[in-house]
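--- STAGE predict ---
source: upstream dedup step, 1 unique chain passed
mode: sequence only
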Amino acid sequence: MKQIPNLFTLLNLVFGCLAIKFILEPESAFLWASPLSLTTGMLVGSFLLLCAAVVDFLDGFVARLFKATSQMGAQLDSLADAVSFGVAPGMILYRLLQIGWANNAAVTGWWYLPAVLFPCAAVWRLAKFNLDKEQHYYFKGIPTPAAALTVASLPVIAYTGSPAVGQLVFHPLLVYPAILIISGLMVSNLPIISLKFKKYTLKANKDKLLLVFIAILAAVFFKWIAVPVVFVAYVIVSLIFKPDRA
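--- STAGE serialize ---
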């Protein structure tokens, strides 16, 4: 019974590995691929990363349910996160650059190399989190799942948005800054809100409630574009409220 939470954590890793497989799959491999879409594999990968995030969110509850929290589980969680929220979204960024530069014959594979900055930053962030025991009710830097889901939303935005929005998502002039900004926020020491509740009063959770309110409004008005909008709001709200470090 004690290993059930660890097996549950490994499900996160399974979703991450499957996501990488689909993200890097050539579009010709998908029988259901739309002739107008270059993002079929990435769409499947994005869905699998969402599944990984749900499992990552729930594994702590499973561990507490079976009273089986352990250092082994903590290490497995970080190792699984490195794949699902580091390597997999890095491969999405790689594919975005690959497709964005597809019509430029002068561009070689070296132009896609900046995509590996994201998994490097994610692993750095995870290692820093494991060593820093202060990060309980707040984070130092953007947590890797939030960064990964923001990247995973990009293929969905490209697929569901207008042609102009799709072209923008694949444009290297957007992808390169996105890599630098998100990676930089992950390894930064900015105090970022944790969604864990320390107290259950309105005053103590006004930052979280404001973030939820923004997320609902963004979802109504912007649909899938709400994901990067909420990501930006997450950073701004954290900077305004400066989460309690105690």
